From TrEMBL:
It comes from the Bacteria. InterPro entries: SAM-dependent_MTases_sf (IPR029063). This is Methyltransferase family protein.
Amino acid sequence: MNPLFKRIFRKDKLARVAVERLTEPLHINLASLFVAGFGSFRCKVDFDLVIRPQYAFPILRAADLANEWGYKRLTLLEFGVAAGAGLLNICRIAKQVTKVTGVEFRIVGFDTGTGMPEPVDYRDLPEAYAAGDFPMDSERLRENLPANCELILGPITETLPVFLRTVGADAPIGFASIDVDYYSSAKDSLAVFADSPEKYLPLVPVYLDDVGDITVNPWVGEWLAVNEFNDEHAMRKIAPWNMLRARRICKNAKWIEHIYGVHVHDHAIRTPGTQTRTRRTADNEFIGVSFGNKPA
Ligand SMILES: C[S@@+](CC[C@H](N)C(=O)[O-])C[C@H]1O[C@@H](n2cnc3c(N)ncnc32)[C@H](O)[C@@H]1O
């Protein structure tokens, strides 16, 4: 059976399929059947027909932005790997995205390797998570990783500074999934966006897994970590991805709420006078004025 259908018929996924997918208009679901059978990878991403659309959409979007801004290679990150299903999924999606866009990827997963650390205080949501949750078989996982993927084990505060020294403009950070559950670990992970601007795409799509837990609010959990990041970094801001729901075919998907963008306002591409690009024009068909070139 197609792995996507196998997944959606899993007992734990059925409720989500009912709430998010069966509530879409009938013509969208009928078109989806056709796309699932005959559609291109890009079309499947558009119709949420790739396993973990929350990774497929931002990775494809990052590659498109890379082509627009002249990058050939990107680094993709997953903070919080656990058993590694998400990391392997990123690897599979990245392979497809390379075929479609030509952009190559370095993929890096971060985890303690021993499960969740001790929560620091109430902001880490001890009602939901505890030390030792989400163990990993790191040996088995490493055996199954492709050559362009690394697994970095240890507390993120210790491993991140070493990793950041290996990132450069030849493969800037183009996507990150932050799925470390605690406020304290999310804060440690978001430090990845505080280094020099050439280490990032000017706009980095990120997936924030833990902004939706019901006990999360602006004062605890990942939501607090994001707010503090924005307060502490004048030229870097994390904001929900603009108008994403309006731009999607399937509008009821929950993952849409988890996609944010890290805006690197001090990036050279976002600095006046640093770019050479075609002048933008606007034609006026009412009075027959045309500048003869397409908008940049
Ligand atoms: C929910 S699991 C990740 C699930 C995974 N993203 C997936 O989709 O399969 C959270 C993981 O974050 C890791 N983690 C939490 N805090 C960490 C820290 N400070 N340093 C390193 N890893 C951490 C835990 O070890 C755990 O495996």
